[in-house]
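Batch job 17 of 40 flagged for manual review because the log was empty.
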Amino acid sequence: MKNQKLALSNLIFLKLGGSLITDKEKPYTALPEAIHLLANEITQFLKESPETQLVIGHGSGSFGHVTAKKFKTRNGVNSSSEWQGFVNVWWDARKLNSIVLDTFIAAGLPVISFPVSAAALTTNHRITEWLPAPLSQALTHNLIPIVYGDVVMDTAIGGTILSTEEIFFHLAPELKPDKIILLGIEKGVWSDFPQKTNIIKTITTETFGEIQKNIYGSASTDVTGGMLEKVKTMLSLVQSQSNLTIHICSGTQKGNLYRLLNGEEIGTKISS
């Protein structure tokens, strides 16, 4: 069946970074209070703006990334031990997803999970098959789809891992969000990481070339590339969707998520 593009009004993609919802220095350690506060801010916003629709993604933090680094799952899966690692990464990512779902459902949010491991195929890390119709239908019924960094079968290298940003990259041309919010522990994209004294307020395709040498990866374990890869992936999106704006900001400060959802511009803005 041919994919039908579905553009939705008032649609926001929101990522809750692994650094925000887990302690990335302590393996398999979720931060339930942080997840609870984020759920409350989303609930408050949707009560005031019921016309807005959300697709929420989250990272794997100290769950999936630790196991993935051990088995090098991102690079490909071939041997029996690597396939066992593939299963372990899947299980760790699923455990964190269950914690997020439990908290969000308890807050009254109508969330439903769409793991790519059950539905997508990649070829050399690029999604080649994934029918978005079920996720689109969930949105039309005012549900909140949840996606997350997960393992996926790959026709060229056996298996790999997709980050939430890569999932958003695939979904955006189909669903055409107005805004993407990437929420983590950093206040934005730093021009002097790890000193962290100067935030880059705006990144465009024109300015990226001169500033990319100052953007680094991640201070903790992140098998999908950290900040630099996030910025590159998001710039590719705004090149193809000129009306799209992307915001990278900290979610550790209470109220930041609510402010971003309401249209305030804090942190780093990426646009065409």
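Reviewer: the log was empty due to a logging misconfiguration, but the result itself is present. The chain has nine helices and 14 strands. Unflagging and moving on to job 18.
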